[in-house]
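Good morning C.,

I know you're traveling, so I'll keep this short. The sequence:
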Amino acid sequence: MRAHARGAIRPTLLAVIVIFVLLAAASWFLILQPHQELVMQDAGGHPSTPVSTDKIAVPPPANVEAMDLNQLLAEARKAMNDHRVLAPAGNNAFEFYLKALEKQPGNPVATDALRETFPFAASGAEQAINGRDFNEAQREIDLLAKADPANYTLTILRSKLDAQRKLLDKEQQLALDQQHQQQLAAEKAAADKAAADKLAAEQKAQQQAEPKKTPAQVAAANTPSNQPAQPAAQQVASTDPVMTKYVSPRFPTQAQRTRTEGWVVVGYTVDTEGNVTSAQVVDAQPRHLFDREAINAVERWKYKPATRNGSPVEAKLQRRIEFKL
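The tokens, ready to paste straight into the viewer:
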């Protein structure tokens, strides 16, 4: 009898355990899980859900100010489901939750939702900073500050925003400086070309203005009086130096700062190789301000040397160099 009783108890106990398991499963699916989902919806979504800050073109409610607390919470949940956490302005979860707190300070649903979604909303503001949408980033940071003004994340975001603004200003200034340098280089190249063309025209006009000498006259001028003139077939015309390379003088930095203009007359010798030697200042106005740059430029000029009877000879020249802004 005892063995029979023990055998009957075991199936009964097993049946009771199965019934308890079924009741627990039914409670989970029918009561606990729906309740948990409702709580998460009231809080604006599960905090582990990634939050996107993309601006979805959703028309805002007609009259937010006239909404009651439940309507504001419903709009906030809808915005969270659409990933409108901080944007667009006037139609995002944070603004609806903040309005709800204005209606009922300390509302637990709005308070918990703002606290749980704050880190993800801050990430969205940081994306706006990195995208250099500075006005939008500032708006989102101000909105975060209304939700939690003492949060240290706000200090980090403001520092990043300030650094990105300074970096953009620096890049823009650098671009302007490069553009200005290119413009100055183009103007200098044009000025150098104009000066070379002018100098060549002056030399040509000077040569045309000089009276032409016959070969006999050139030979007579270059032949000592105690020697007979060479036959006409052996006489060769003389030529003056002809510039082949012109270098424009650099405008002194001090003169640029004071907006001073002037000129320098430089005397120099063109040797038989066409190089400039013995350059020195003959006159200048003002004195000493432009002398060094004028000498440096003249010494870099190149000439086709002067000739006498077909042979290269040294020639002494003077040039006036203008320094104008």
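Safe travels,
E.
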